[in-house]
Amino acid sequence: MRRNHSRPARAAAASRQDELAASSLRPTHLLALQAFDVAVRLGSFKEAASVLNLSASAVSHRIRNLEAHLGVALFHRSHRAVRPTHAGEKLAAATGRAFAVLVRAGSAVEAAGRRRLRLKVLPQFASAWLIPRLSSFLTQHSEIDLVIETSNRNVDFDTETFDVGISFGPDKAEGVVAHRLMDVRTVPVGTPALARRLKLRSAADLGRAVLIEVTTFPAAWPLWFKHAGETVPPSARAIAVDSFVAALQAAERGAGVALALEPFIGESERRGTIRRLLPVSHMTGSYWLVHPPGAQRSRALQAFKRWLLAEVAKES
């Protein structure tokens, strides 16, 4: 008697189809998850709508449908902003990783004969060290397109779609491949005219100066003074800027005394626009080249890594 194998085969195929994650989400759910992820990163339905080219009401509608589908509230809503609930935070961690993986997977399908490498770099490293040297990399690797984004925040490969980053910290970050590039020290600098006027002989004399603070690193001056064996002078006046790049620019124009980052002040010293005001420098951390472990298969990444480490070695 001939057995009919078609029914079990169809049942097995149907079972496999039920297990396919991609088939379990409707397009409306995927769009809602996209709206949710953008809104939670930006903290605003209005800003998310602008990024997604939708109306704010459309974003709100998608997220409310997602909340109804999941049976939980995902946001605490206020007049000006939104913030995720505990359930929203858990979902945001998952969606951030998922969308980052999807974008990286799409980027891996490169145009024939060309490769693209996306970098997230801290502003001071980009402007004072990396960009002035990039022409040699581009000359050696004309087949590679570089996309560079600067930010005061270290790269987060779980939620961002960069291939590689230049990060800053005292120690190697967990869960990534990391290469120490260079140590960084803070040193007070100002114009030669300011140095003559203030006649600085010790850290305590900085109470006569305007101190240029960096809002993203508020502990920089207190840590330097502690290292110098002094407290921040109570008489010191201050102005605040948002980066060490801006602080150095302000110091070069005579606005006050900035904490500059070694080894990035050599060019300004050679031009004579600033000088070191005191010999005390404070070790604050190191720059690191970081990338996800799986990215080592990228030939573009390997080429960039070899070039960058060779450039650093020239100056060590």
Defining key terms:
316 residues; 44% helix; Arc Repressor Mutant, subunit A; D-Maltodextrin-Binding Protein, domain 2; 11 strands; 9-stranded mixed β-sheet; alpha/beta; single chain; two-stranded antiparallel sheet
Question: Could you explain how this protein is built, in words?
Answer:
By secondary structure, the chain is α/β, with parallel strands linked by helices. The chain has helices spanning 6-19, 27-42, 45-52, 56-70, 86-108, 123-140, 192-198, 220-227, 244-252, 266-271, 299-314, and strands at 75-77, 82-84, 115-121, 144-150, 164-169, 177-190, 210-214, 237-241, 257-262, 275-276, 282-291. It is built from 11 helices and 11 strands. The longest helix is centred in the first third of the chain and has 23 residues, at 86-108. The radius of gyration is 26 Å and the shape is globular.
Q: Nutshell version of this structure?
A:
Helix content is 44%, strand content 22%.
Beta-strand residue fraction: 15-25%
CATH architecture type of the largest domain:
3-Layer(aba) Sandwich
Question: Are there runs of 5+ residues with pLDDT below 50, and where?
Answer: 11-15
The CATH topology of the largest domain is what? D-Maltodextrin-Binding Protein, domain 2
Into which percent range does the helicity of residues fall? Answer: 40-55%
Number of domains: 2
Radius of gyration: 26 Å
Gap from first CA to last CA: 82 Å
Q: What is the helix tally?
A: 11
Shape type: globular
State the order of secondary-structure elements, H for helix, E for strand: HHHHEEHEHEEEHEHEHEHEEH
Query: What structural class do you assign from the helix and strand content?
Result: alpha/beta
Tell me, what is the CATH class of the largest domain? Alpha Beta
For the secondary structure, the number of strands is 11
Mean pLDDT: 83
Largest sheet: 9 strands, mixed
